[in-house]
Amino acid sequence: MPVVTEERGGPAQPLLSIRGLTKTFSISGGMFGSGAAQLRAVDRIDFDVLKGETLGVVGESGCGKSTTARVLMQLIAKDDGEILFDGERVGSSALKLKEYRRQVQMVFQDSYSSLNPRLTIEASIAFGPQVHGVPRAQAVARARSLLARVGLEPGRFAERYPHELSGGQRQRVNIARALALEPRLIILDEAVSALDKSVEAQVLNLLLDLKEEFGLTYVFISHDLGVVRFVSDRVMVMYLGQVVEIGEADTLFERPLHPYTAALLSSMPSLDPDRRTEEAPLAGDPPSPIHPPPGCRFHTRCSFAEPICAEREPALYDGGPLQRAACLMLPPGSGHSRAPASMEPAHG
Amino acid sequence: MAVGAEVPALDATVPTTPVAGYWTSVWRRLRRDPVAIAAALVLIAIVLMAIFAPYVAPADPYRSSMLRRLRPMGTPGFPLGSDELGRDMLTRLIYGARLSLFMGVTPVVLAFGIGSAIGIFAGYLGGRINTLVMRTIDVFYAFPSVLLAVALSGALGAGLGNAMLSLTIVFIPPIARVAEAVTTQMRSRDFVEAARASGAGALTIIRVHILGNVLGPIFVYATSLISVSMILASGLSFLGLGTRPPDPEWGLMLNTLRTAIYVQPWVAALPGLMIFITSISFNMLSDGLRSAMDVKQ
C-alpha cells in the first residue's frame, strides 16, 4: 500500500486537533419540520490527541461520546468546528477525506453488526485496501497475515462467515479490518464493552501489543472506568456534549478536579470494603440535552453548586500540570465561594 | 494481565466441519419444507409443459370444429372437453401456459430490476432524496393495483406489450418500497458505517455490502407478486386489454368460455383452475423461500 503521508509536524504536533466541534440533531423533523427541537449532542468541544498516546473518553450514556467518535470519523457531518489531522484540515486539498479515512479507522461496539453477514472474514478485511487500489490477491494475503497477527489462525478462520465466530473472535476480526489500511489513529468506540471479562482482557492486551508494534494512537471510548484507567495515558470526561475535564490518567483518577469526575469515580465499584460506596454519588439522570441547563451544565446535580453556576458557563481552566477542568471553583475570582486565590485545586 | 500475542484458548472455539455458504444453507432449509418443494415441482411441471407444448399437446390449439363445440370432459379425442369453437381444451390449456407464465413473470422481472434500483438508491442515500422519491412512488401506490393496471392498459391501448408495460408500472412501487425499507435498515448497520469509514464510495458500498443483503428479501417479495401478476394479466385479457383471440391464454379462455358456464361448467372452469394452481404454487414457494432465507442476523 502506498504510504502517502508520513510524519509531518514532528512528535510534538498533536495527531488530531479538535476545535469547537459541534453536532446538532433535529428532533421530530419530518418533511415540514420547522420549529423542530434541536439536540446538541456535541457542543463546542476542544481537545487534542497526541501522537502515540491513548486518550480515554468517559461519560454517562448519552453524553456525546459516540457522536464525537462518529463525527471524528466523518460518518456524520459536523455542524461547526475544525478537525485537524497532523496539522492539516480534514477535507482540504492537502488531506482529502478518503486519505484521512485511510489514516483514521474505527472499531465499533457491536462486533456482529459491524461485519457484513454475507462476506467471509478475509473479504471483509480485504475490502478497505481494495477500495484504496490494492489488488485483490494482495489485499487477501494481507488480510490473512493480519488475522494471524490478531490471534486467529488464517487456515481456520479466513473463509468463515461472521455468525460462525464468537464475540471475541469477531472483535479481533474488526481490529484486523481497522489495521488493514495501516492507519495511524484508531477510534475504539466501546470496542471491548460487549465482551466477557476474560475475553475483554485478552482483546485489551492485544490492542496494547498492536499499538506498540504499529506505532498507533488510540481514542478509547468506554463507560468502564477501570478499563479506561488501565489503557489510557490521558482521559477526557464528557458531560451533556461538553468536555468537563481532561488530564493525565493517573492524576485525574487520583485527584479529580471537576465534581462530576469525582462523582463518576466514586461510582466505581471497589473491592476494598472500607471504600465501598454507601449511596449513589450521582442522583437521577442527566438533564435533557435538548434543553441543557444554563451556565454550568452540571449545576443541577452538583453538590457544590452556587447561584453563579447557573449564570456563568465555565471554560476549561488549568487546574494543575496537564489537567484542565470546566468548573468555576478553579479560576480565581470566578464568583464561586470555593474559588481559590492561588492555583491550588479546590478539592480532591 | 499480560497475555501474549498467542491464540488464546478461551475463545478459540469454532466448528471444525467446514460450514457452507449462505445459499447452501437456504437450500438445505428449503429442502425440508414439503409444501415449498411440492409447489416448486408443480411450477417446474407447468414450465416444462409450456416449453414443450408442441410435443406434449395432443392437437393443434387453433383447429376449430363447429361440429364438436363444448364437448364434456372425457369425450374421445377431447380428454378435457372442447371449447366454444370446438378446439381441444387440453391442448389450449397447455399452450396457454406459455402466454400466461410469460405475462405473469415478465412484468415482475422488469419491476424487480427497476423497483430495486429505485428503492436501494433512495434507501441508501436517505434524507431529502429518499423522501422525494418515495413520496412520488406513494402516489402510484395509492391506487388499487387492479384499477391502476386497467386504467394504464386502457390508456395505452390493448395489446400484449402494453398490458405488460402497465403491469410493470403497477409493480414498481411496491417493490421499490420493500427495497427502500430493507436498504434503510441495512444502511444503519455498523458494517456499512465501517465501509464508509474505509473511504469507499456509495456505488462500491451498494455493490459489495448492500446488494447481497437486500436482494434476497426483495426477491422473495417479488416472487409473491408473480401470482398477482398472472391474475391481473388474466384479468386484462379477460377485459380484452391483453392478448387477443385466438391466441390461447388462460385469462382470455376464461372470458370466452364464460357464456358456456351453464352448458359445460366444468370445462369452462378449467382455465381458472390453472390460474389458481399456478398462482398458489408461486405463493407457496415464495413463502417457503421467505422462511428458508430468514436466518438470525
Supply the number of helical segments of chain A. Answer: 11
The counted number of beta strands of chain A is 12
Q: Output the helix-strand order of chain B.
A: HHHHHHHHHHH
Number of strands of chain B: 0
How many structurally independent domains of chain B?
1
How would you classify the helix and strand content of chain B by structural class? Answer: mainly alpha
**Percent of residues of chain A in helical segments?**
25-40%
Give the CATH superfamily of chain B.
Answer: MetI-like
| Percentage beta strand of chain B | under 5%
Q: Average pLDDT value of chain A?
A: 86
User: Judging by the overall fold, what is the CATH architecture of chain B?
Assistant: Orthogonal Bundle
- In the CATH hierarchy, the architecture of the largest domain in chain A is 3-Layer(aba) Sandwich
Query: What shape does the CA trace of chain A take?
Result: globular
Radius of gyration of chain B: 25 Å
- CATH topology of chain B, what is it called? MetI-like fold
Question: Which CATH first-tier class of chain B would you pick?
Answer: Mainly Alpha
Runs of chain A in which pLDDT lies below 50 for 5 or more consecutive residues are 1-5
Shape of chain B: elongated
How far is it from the N-terminal to the C-terminal residue of chain A, by CA? 50 Å
